[in-house]
Every structure is written in structure tokens, then in C-alpha cells.
Amino acid sequence: MTTTLTRDPAEAVSVLEGGGTCAFPTETVYGLGALARNPAAVKAVFEAKGRPSDNPLIVHVADLEGVENVAEITNVGRRLLEAFAPGPLTVVLPARPGLAPAVTAGLDTVAVRIPALEVALEVLRRVAAPVVAPSANRSGRPSPTTWEAVLGDLDGRIDAILQGPPTHVGIESTVVDASIAAPVVLRPGSVTLDQIRSVCPDARMSGLEAERGKSPGTRHRHYAPRALVTVVALKDARPDIEAAWIGLSAPPAGYGSVTVCSDLEDYARRLYDTFRRADADGVARIEAERVEDEGLGTALSDRLRRAAAR
Ligand code: TXA
Ligand code: MG
Q1: Residue of the CA atom closest to atom 30 of ligand 1
Q2: By alpha-carbon position, which residue is closest to atom 13 of ligand 1?
Q3: Which residues line ligand 1 (CB under 6 A)?
Q4: 239 alpha carbon to ligand 2 midpoint, in Å?
Q5: More confident residue, 270 or 222
Q6: What does pTM read for this prediction?
Q7: Which positions ≥6 away from 196 have C-beta within 8 Å?
């Protein structure tokens, strides 16, 4: 198939409404959209990504009414959505019938998100039906933060790409299990545990691996470039012309490429693009500076650890 590039939201809407697959930007990363009630369209998403069928998808909607159409909104779910939606938060809620079965991978819950980027909301409002949108990368690769990265991974495998700006947050949404009375963060993101606790004081981080298994996606290798990633402190930096550095500190001289970020937000925003550029340039090794496991640092540490996992 030929992948159409467009800047027109109306074209993205017509591809989706026709049962096609269309990538579109959100404030976190680009998603690969398809109608969540259309089994063939959902199947095409799994195939394009090479995604394991046991890994369920996030359903994107424009507003609370859209959430209500696909899920039962629990008390904690309502509190979280009122505080952080639209935004980089995904809530896991009891699912209502009607979604293509593959969306939830057989679970009785569904993950739902209202993105904040205006062009994404515009598409979702106009489609007026739930849209699945996993990150628009080949399974296992870093999530795409630019339309060019989507094209690099999925050219010829999807119907269209809505070209938008590079994404602002740069890492995927915080996923919170809100189907239970004391919510659990299954995937850390830019909405931090402290922020979540400001509206749900009982919330906690998922600790146990078994519990992580509840968010099937966290079981798989993820977010990884081809280059070998190591997470290091500045004092352990080993400069090498074959290696790239990314971090908050300026490293010793000698790296083939250096990305110094101004703060944690900037680090998160630039991480995946740095991974992808390193791969394009044939870099063998990436050293990523370790960050404190706190606030946005928790999400960043999680992605670095996964990218470094072998
Ligand atoms: O920022 C984001 O969340 C991006 C943008 C495009 O919205 N999307 C994204 O989707 O990262 P994806 O499919 O790459 O990650 C979805 C995560 C996976 O870890 C998946 O296992 C988890 O959400 N998930 C989906 N449904 C779930 C459910 N019912 N229970 C627990 N975890 C679920
Ligand atoms: Mg993903």
C-alpha cells in the first residue's frame, strides 16, 4: 500500500472513517489510529506494528462522554480525568461491550485517553467514534516524536500520516489502573505520582513484576534503539568517537555526538529522537546520563532502563 502524507485533518478523518489506518500527532508521541469498533481496522494496526496480540491498545476519545461510551467511569477514574484530561494521562477502566475484541486483548478493562493536542482533538471530535492509537512505531522500537519517524518505521504499512509538529512531551502517557479503589500507576509518564496523589491520595506505583504484567505492554522489550544503550553517571562516562551522549550534563570531550538537555522535560522531549538519529548515523553505543527517580525522572528512568535492557 502507498502511505499518503497529509497536513489536512479532514483527510485523516476520512481515512479513519473509511476503516483505514492513519497516524496522527498527540502531545506525547505520534499514535497509529484506527476505528476501535472495526475489527479489520484494529487488526491492521497490530499487523502494521508487528505488535504481539496480548498487548492491548489505548482508546482515544475527545471528551468525557466519549470515555463513558467505551468504559464505566469509576470514582477514582472521574477524579483523575477531571484533573488531568485532556492530557498525557491514560486511565484503565472497566470496559463496556462494543469494542473490537483485540483492542483489550481479552481483558475486561480498557485503557482510555483524551489527548490535549488540538489537532488530535479535532480529528477525534470529527470522527465521533472511539479510535485506537498505540504509538506509531514498529513494535519494540522507540515511540515516534516526529512524522518523519513514523514514516521511517511504517511507510507502505499504513494508509496515511497526518503531518504535525514534533511532539512536546516526547514520552508516552502515564497509564493508571483506575478500575480499582486505590489506583496503581502501571506506566510512569509526565503526569507524576505526586500529581496523581493530589487527587487520589491512595495512589501508588506498581512495584511487583506480577502487577506490571497487568499492563501487558510493560512485559515486552521496548523503546530501544539498535545501538547499545547504557545508563551512566557523569563520572562513569567513557567518551568514544563511536558513541553518543545524552544527558543533563556536558560530558568529557571525545563523543561522536553530544546532546545536552536543559532540564528533565527537555531530556524526555529529545530522548527518542536522539535514539533514532543515533541509529540513522550508525552509532554503536549510546550513553544516557542517569536521572533521579523522582517526578518526571521516574518516567525517564523507566524508559532508559527499558532501552538498556538486553
Ligand atoms: O502517550 C501514549 O499513551 C501514546 C499516544 C499515541 O497516546 N500511546 C501509547 O500506546 O503509548 P501504546 O499502545 O504504545 O501503549 C499502551 C500501553 C501498553 O503498555 C499497554 O499494555 C497498556 O497501555 N494497556 C492498554 N490497555 C490496557 C489495559 N486494559 N490494562 C492495562 N494496561 C493496558
Ligand atoms: Mg508503544
Answers
A1: 215
A2: 134
A3: 26, 28-29, 31, 55-58, 90, 92, 104, 107, 109-111, 113, 115, 133-135, 172-173, 175, 186-187, 214-218
A4: 31
A5: 270
A6: 0.96
A7: 80, 84, 174, 176, 183, 185, 203
